[in-house]
Amino acid sequence: MQKLSKTQERWLAVGLLLGIIIILSATVFIPWYNTLNETLEKIDDQVYQIQRYQRVIASREEVLSEVEKGRKKINALGYFYTQETYSLAAAELQKRIKGIVERAGGDISSTQVLPHKEQNELVRIAVKVRLVGDMDMLRVLLFEIQAEKPLMGIENITIIPKRGRRNRKTRKIEETGLITITMEVSSYMRKMSDESE
What we know:
Strand order of the largest sheet: 1-2-4-3
Radius of gyration: 41 Å
Oligomer: single chain
Number of domains: 2
CATH architecture of the largest domain: 2-Layer Sandwich
Helix content: 40-55%
Distance between the termini: 90 Å
CATH topology of the largest domain: Alpha-Beta Plaits
Order of helices and strands: HHHEEHEEH
C-alpha cells in the first residue's frame, strides 16, 4: 500500500472530521431541527387558538346583549306568555279564555289545566274547556281566539248539538239551537331559565 504524505494525511484527517461532523449533523441536528420546527408550528397553532378564543370571549358580552335585545323584541310582539311560572301562565290562559267565551255569549261549564309540555325552547300550556252556546257564539269565539295575543291555538275540538226537550203536546223533541263544545286551547311561553340550565 502506498504511504500518504503529511499534507495528504492532513487533508484526509480534515475530510474524515468533516464527514463525522456531517454524519453527526445528519443523525442529530436534522431530526432535532425538524422536531423544533414541528414544536414551533404547534406553538403557533396554540397561540392562534388562544387568540381566537380570546376574541370569542371578548365578544361574549356583545353576543349576550344582542340575544337579550332579540328576546325583548320577541316579547314586545306579545306572541308568548311572559309569566314567571307555568302555573301562572296557565291561569292567565284560563282567564283569557273565560273572557273570550263571555264576550262571545257562551257559558263555560268546566275548565281543566292540562300538563305543560316542553318543546325545544318553548313550553306548551293548554286548557281543556267545555262550554255551551250557539253557532254564532262559536263563530265569534273562533275568530276571537285566532286574533288574541299571546297567540292561541285550538286542538281536539268536539261539537255536539245539545239535546232539546220533548214537547208534551206533539211528543217531538224541540231543538234548542245550542251546542256543547269541548276543545283544548293551547299557547306557548319561553322555557324558564332555571330549568334550561
